């Protein structure tokens, strides 16, 4: 953000420079809070991204959808590592250095990869519901691997543009920054529109198929679709401000010649949005495994299979709890007076 202000810094009056210094000081306070928060949440989030380990250990979990979910977990875990690295880099490295720029580009890359993989999963489910036979015939793990590789290539290219768009130390052309931010906005809008449209079609199609079922037949349960819809909803709720942040930055770049007061108002809004995004992004990258555990019994079973000591400990705890619960139930259901009537020996 400081780089954006440098475009108009030479045209500011003394009072306007003081206002912008106050905004930059406020930005530094945000950076300090975000850095401390990142040091706490990122180690927890990295440990919680256990789906990759589960897919590796449990053979039954190596499905096509889980290939994309594993790539999403890789992107989330990498993003958390980069967030923690950026927090340390801000303390010990100058933000104008090439290492800091590399961290920003890498962070932008994995974040865009997350968006793309969420959309790929939605399109895969959409194809499976719309054309089940065709999708089953062409679906394979090799094809999923090729699609994943293509997503990473697109993410790297757009991540480089996203990293350079906000760094005027290396890019001083405002038009180039405007084009890069516009491309990022289009990617966010496209992934959001494709994902939401796909899941709306899936839900409508499945509800329509349930209505056609004859009376007396039980309704089918779609645990995978339910899990994916809930996970996608959580993803976009926690990342909902990304689109707003990109729009605000695009407006800011187009308003550089509109006057210092207008730029300052937009700059304050951008600061608040960036702070919220810096809090919600690590949370989103950390809770995917929790969402899978709550919504999918298959994943819970696979998780226990991937961690045998945890499964053994859980079985031992259940065995210890069962006798105590049974004894309490018997004592509560058999009052002492009734027990004396039924036992003549005790009555004598």
Which key features would you list for this structure?
single chain; 348 residues; mainly alpha; 16 helices
In short:
The protein has 348 residues and is mainly alpha-helical. 84% of the residues lie in helices and 0% in strands.
Largest sheet data: none
Helix content class: over 70%
| Terminus-to-terminus distance | 90 Å
Residues in β-strands, percent? under 5%
How many domains make up the 3D coordinates? 2
Q: Overall mean pLDDT score?
A: 77
Assembly annotation: single chain
CATH superfamily of the largest domain: Rhodopsin 7-helix transmembrane proteins
Written overview of the protein:
With 348 residues, the protein is mainly α. It folds into two domains: 2-306, Rhopdopsin 7-helix transmembrane proteins (Up-down Bundle), CATH 1.20.1070.10; 314-348. The chain has 16 helices and no strands. It has helices at residues 2-6, 14-48, 51-57, 64-92, 98-130, 132-138, 141-165, 174-211, 223-238, 240-254, 260-286, 288-295, 297-306, 308-333, 336-342, 344-347. Helix 4 (64-92) packs parallel to helix 7 (141-165), helix 5 (98-130) packs antiparallel against helix 7 and helix 8 (174-211) runs antiparallel to helix 9 (223-238). The longest helix is centred in the middle third of the chain and has 38 residues, at 174-211. It is globular, with a radius of gyration of 27 Å. It starts with a helix and ends with a helix. It comes from Patiria miniata. InterPro entries: GPCR_Rhodpsn, GPCR_Rhodpsn_7TM. Residues 47-292 form the G-protein coupled receptors family 1 profile domain.
């Amino acid at each position: 953000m400081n780089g954006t202000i440098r475009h108009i810094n030479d045209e500011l009056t003394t009072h306007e420079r003081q206002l912008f210094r106050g905004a930059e000081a406020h930005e530094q306070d945000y950076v300090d809070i975000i850095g401390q928060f990142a040091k706490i949440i990122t180690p927890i989030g990295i440990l919680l991204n256990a789906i990759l380990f589960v897919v590796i250990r449990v053979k039954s979990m190596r499905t096509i959808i889980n290939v994309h979910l594993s790539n999403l977990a890789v992107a989330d875990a990498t993003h958390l590592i980069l967030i923690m690295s950026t927090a340390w880099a801000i303390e010990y490295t100058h933000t104008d250095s090439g290492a800091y720029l590399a961290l920003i580009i890498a962070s932008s890359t994995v974040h865009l990869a997350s968006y793309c993989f969420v959309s790929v999963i939605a399109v895969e489910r959409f194809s499976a519901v719309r054309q089940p036979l065709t999708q089953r015939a062409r679906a394979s793990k090799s094809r999923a691997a090729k699609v994943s590789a293509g997503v990473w290539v697109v993410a790297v290219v757009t991540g480089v543009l996203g990293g350079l768009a906000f760094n005027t130390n290396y890019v001083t052309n405002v038009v180039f920054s405007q084009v890069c931010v516009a491309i990022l906005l289009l990617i966010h809008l496209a992934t959001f529109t494709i994902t939401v449209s796909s899941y709306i079609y899936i839900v409508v199609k499945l509800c329509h198929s349930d209505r056609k079922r004859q009376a007396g037949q039980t309704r089918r349960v779609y645990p995978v679709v339910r899990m994916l819809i809930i996970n996608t909803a959580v993803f976009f709720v926690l990342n909902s401000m990304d689109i707003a942040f990109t729009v605000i930055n695009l407006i800011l770049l187009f308003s550089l010649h509109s006057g210092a007061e207008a730029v300052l108002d937009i700059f304050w809004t951008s600061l608040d949005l960036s702070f919220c995004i810096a809090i919600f992004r690590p949370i989103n990258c950390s809770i995917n495994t929790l969402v899978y555990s709550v919504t999918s019994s298959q994943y819970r079973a696979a998780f226990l299979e991937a961690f045998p000591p945890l499964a053994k400990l859980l079985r031992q705890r259940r065995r210890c709890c069962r006798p105590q619960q049974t004894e309490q139930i018997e004592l509560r259901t058999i009052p002492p007076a009734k027990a004396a009537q039924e036992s003549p020996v005790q009555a004598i």
